[in-house]
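Deviation from plan, reported transparently: benzoyl-formic acid complex.
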Amino acid sequence: MKTTAAFAALAVLAADGAAAGEVTLRAVTAFAEGTQFSRNFERFIEKVNADGKGLVKITYVGGPRAMPPFEVGNAVRTRVVDIANVTGAFVTNLMPEADAGKLINKPMSEQRRNGTWEYINQLHNQKLNAWYLARQFHNVPFHIYLNKKLDKLDLAGLKIRVTPVYKDIVEALGGTAITTAPGEVYTALERGVVDGYGWPITGIFDLGWNERTKYRVDPGFYSAEVSILINKTVWDGLSPAQQAVLRKAADQGEAEAAAVFAKDNAAETARQTRAGIEAITFDAAATKHYLDVAYEAGWAGVTRQSPENGPKLQALFAKAR
Ligand code: 173
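Because the crystal trials were delayed, the predicted structure below was used instead.
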């Protein structure tokens, strides 16, 4: 409590000085520092700090060692921190629809043109008191990784580590879903508490999970979504020049995403093969069934969590295709 109050007091002091001079924003990431899904944010911070001299500066508090990933949404909402790198699956306690980000796999330039960004931003405003500054990562599919071989698409009897991203697909395929933060996956694999886990195509080597992984189910499905959120009160209090510094760094990250991630996806797939991780594949009909189950279960899950906004998001995303 004490720490939280102290964090908040500092943040208020810092941001209220905004228009006058240089504002300092405190940042956290929901992913381990220096790993795949934080590096983009670390580049963003570097750019803001380079371009923003005298206007805006970001202090990087760090990752899950500083704050548990599932608490990051609330920390932005209550201004315990000012700005965060986080995925929708970690903030569903406040915004159930946030998990739908995994189901839209379109460049942000397109989402900003066709109203998708605006709609999602409004939801963030209302539910998280946050401004949806940038989405990074698209075309970075999720996979189910296993330590037991499958001869058909059936997870019955298997315990799979999930977040909201994979819960519906794992259960639709008969598996037992066990929710954990990424920081608990290695130990869960080591102790045999789980037989596998969901994760994107990239990043397992950063976490050492390759040592505990035998198989990857192909193809991948959906796309990783990791976004930069800033407390809305803080955002509204910034001057146009300060906002422009953040905007420019965010735009650069979004624009670079496609090329950078396509390269990373290919490199990490090859690296998994070299590390002895075997792809489990199925024939065309079973593969189609797998993807159909993934998307049907995914949308059904979003609509179950948010009967009001689920169908609206689905319609918007269909338009984006
Ligand atoms: O923890 C997760 O598996 C998860 O939900 C996620 C989401 C985006 C990127 C990486 C992991």
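The radius of gyration is 20 Å. We consider this an acceptable substitute for the interim report.
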